[in-house]
Write a structure and sequence with these properties.
Belongs to the zinc-containing alcohol dehydrogenase family. Quinone oxidoreductase subfamily. The protein has about 425 residues and is α/β, with parallel strands linked by helices. It is built from 13 helices and 16 strands. The protein is globular, with a radius of gyration of 21 Å.
């Protein structure tokens, strides 16, 4: 029985399809009922909409793998889901998260290729931020022995997305140049590492000044996102660049297209400029939309430029390209075994610290990937902030300024 059953609707090229796996309703603990801890999003909005609570443990259906989760990846997209800032937001309450790593606990009927005890990483169409997940075997991959669970949770989405944009969409080759926004983030660092596997590739990285010391060695040229990077890039490369990878959108779209060389490729794979405050902002959305360059196809034709969009989760869950993604994952695992690439983990957080972790991403403070470590004990000052107060994940409103009084003390990897 395939988990995909809901009808799909059309959406923008940079947002994911939201057809989450249907979860059983929370039930009272009784007798043999099996429960698990999970992060539940009870409503769209700020951080107080997230709560760690108990839910009924899922069981694998036909073709599925049941995974005892060790670590989950946290992405900027998760912030947009929390705010309800994506096309077709999911029905609530829901367990967020799209990637995890762990140990196979059981398999469903007609499931081949995995055995109990296998160490795996997986894509999940929501529901990843929990102690147990079930997902189709097509979305599950065995981990190398040398890879930790935290590294695995930081590997799948970031490196597959980076590889496919560079090699499948933009056809990166020797001697080309790449400009990547958010160079200090998980995808940005994956892009930088993959570019280093091709001879003579020049990488222009755009990042906040506070991250420059940590990532300077990973790129060829590094610029502050708050200065006129266009002018600086043109000084070094007057003809522009071959590939632009843009996860920001807004005013950066026009800048990216302007910097493209003839036969260059601009790829939009996110819209983080739409997120400014803790909750959804119509003003930020309208401003970002207004700033987007109105692309004229005739101009693209005359200037020999290519513009593309990329959504890995849509590719998996909507377009059914799991075999293509698996072939890419096989190539990436070979590069990992050859020690040519290695996921960058920013910090580890307990499930109960999810609000603090999200705030770090919102503040653009991370270098690499933030990980929810399911087995990590929360810092006492943070623990009371996200623990359950109701069975359905409904939360009390927090006193204003409450978060400001708490220390943020994750385990920095």
């Amino acid at each position: 029985m395939a988990k995909e059953g809901a009808d799909m609707t059309e959406e923008t090229q940079f947002m994911i399809d939201t057809n989450p796996r249907k979860e059983p309703e929370h039930v009272e603990s009784s007798g043999d009922a099996k429960e698990m801890r999970a992060v539940v999003l009870a409503g769209f909005g700020g951080l107080n909409k997230l709560r760690v609570t108990k839910k009924a443990m899922p069981e694998p259906q036909d073709g599925e793998v049941k995974i005892r989760v060790k670590a989950c990846g946290l992405n900027f997209l998760d912030l947009m889901v929390r705010q309800g800032s994506i096309d077709n937001p999911p029905k609530l309450p829901i367990v967020p998260g799209f990637e995890c790593s762990g140990i196979v606990e059981s398999v469903g009927e007609n499931t081949a290729g995995f055995e109990i005890g296998d160490r795996v990483m997986a894509f999940v169409n929501y529901n990843a931020w929990a102690e147990v997940v079930c997902t189709p075997a097509d979305f599950v991959y065995k981990m190398p022995e040398e890879m930790s669970f935290a590294e695995a949770a930081a590997f799948s989405l970031n490196f597959v997305a980076a590889y496919m944009m560079l090699f499948e969409v933009a056809n990166l080759r020797e001697g080309m140049s790449v400009l990547v926004h958010s160079a200090g983030g998980g995808v940005g660092q994956a892009v930088a590492q993959l570019c280093s596997t091709v001879p003579n590739v020049t990488v222009f990285g755009i990042a906040s000044c506070s991250k420059h010391a940590a990532i300077r060695d990973s790129v060829t040229h590094l610029f502050d996102r708050n200065v006129d990077y266009m002018q600086e890039v043109q000084k070094i490369s007057p003809e522009g660049v071959d590939i632009v990878l843009d996860c920001l959108c807004g005013e950066n779209t026009a800048k990216g297209l302007t910097l493209l060389r003839p036969l260059g490729t601009y790829i939009l794979y996110g819209a983080s400029n739409m997120v400014t405050g803790e909750t959804k902002s119509f003003f930020s959305f309208a401003k970002s939309w207004w700033q987007v360059e109105k692309v004229n196809p005739i101009k693209l034709y005359e200037e020999n430029k290519v513009i593309a969009g990329f959504s890995l989760l849509n590719l998996l869950f909507k377009h059914g390209k799991c075999n293509l993604v698996k072939s890419v994952m096989d190539k990436l695992l070979c590069l990992f075994d050859q020690k040519k690439i290695k996921p960058v983990v920013d910090s580890l957080w307990a499930l109960e610290e999810v609000k603090e972790a999200m705030q770090r991403i919102h503040d653009r403070g991370n270098v690499g990937k933030l990980i929810l470590d399911v087995e990590k004990s929360p810092t006492p000052l943070m623990a009371s902030d996200s623990t359950e107060t109701s069975e359905a994940g409904e939360e009390e409103e927090e006193p204003e300024g409450d978060n400001d009084s708490k220390e943020r003390m994750p385990f920095i990897h």
